[in-house]
Each structure stands twice: as structure tokens, then as C-alpha cells.
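Final report, section 2: Outcomes. Of the targets proposed, p53 apoptosis effector related to PMP-22 is the one most frequently requested by collaborating groups, and we therefore present its record in full.
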Amino acid sequence: MVMCGLACWRCRWLLPLLLGLAIIMGIIALAGRGWLESESAPYVHQASLWESCTRGPYDFNWHCESLMDYGWGRAAAATYLVGFVILVICFALAVIAFSIEILRFNFVRGIGGLLFVVAAFQIIGLVIYPVKFAEEIPLMGDNMFSWAYGFGWASTVVVIGCAFFFCCLPNWEDEVLGNIKPTYYYSSPERAPYLN
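The predicted structure is given below as C-alpha cells.
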């Protein structure tokens, strides 16, 4: 019988795998052009973290302006990008921490602390963007914050979950390392007549 409990070596890789998933979602958020889009036809507005593009109702060419000309645009991009860079560093540290035979549990808790810093930076960037965008960029028609913006939030939620797990993992050090012997519960037939 094969079981994958906490002591299973393969199961240790779940947290770095989740961090890798957060990195992939962060890349999609950074590169995606769907932070803000027109909700219905005519599709006249499209924005990313880096630029805002508009076009007329019957125009096929997008006219883009850089959001880096605005202080809030630079701040939103910088905070999200700094969080993403720290996330990549945490991923590398997690791979190193889980590669060695004896886990360094204080090291793992430090990764959890850094992940909370990542979440703070990403949340700041994800809050600055829609607030200041709606205030300073003229919007035409009905608009919505779209799929790439959602990937940014999804990455942040995964990072917060991983941060809690990395911080709590040292509390179960013996279970993770397999140092606890299994407990078998046995009762004799004389003491448990209902088993007959």
C-alpha cells in the first residue's frame, strides 16, 4: 500500500510547485493586455500594466499611451514588479531548501516571511492601478478590469496561502521528516467483546 502523507518526499515539492504556479500567473499578469477592457461592443479601450490603448468605434488601429508617464503608473508597475522579483527569489530558495536532505526549518520560515512581503507589494500595485486609472484616464463606454488583472490577484492569493504554509511548516518538523513512529491501536478480544 502506497501512501503519500507529510513524510512523503514527493509531497514536499507541492509548495515550490505552487510558487511556480504563482510565478506563471505573475508572468501572465505582467505581459497581458487585459488589465482593463471595454465590456461590450464597440471595443474601444484596452489597457495593460504598462500602457492604455484606445480607438474610435469604427477605427481598427489602437492609439496607445504609456502609463509610465504617470507617477501612479510607475508606482503600480514598480511595486508589482518588485513583488514578482522577490517571488522568483523565494521560488529559488524553496527549491534549494527542499532539495537538501535535512530541511532547514528556520530557512523555510524565512521564505514564508518573504512571501508576506511579496503579497504586500503585489496588493499595493493591484490597488493603486484601478483607483488611479479610473481617476486620471478618461474612460469611454462600459469598462471592466479583466483577465490579466485577475491573474495578478490569483498570483497574490496563491502567494498568501504559500506564505502561511511556509511559516507553519516548522511546527510539523517531525512529521515532514518522518521522525514520528506510527501509532498502532490494538485491543485484545477480552477487552473488546464487540469485535467478535
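The radius of gyration is 24 Å.
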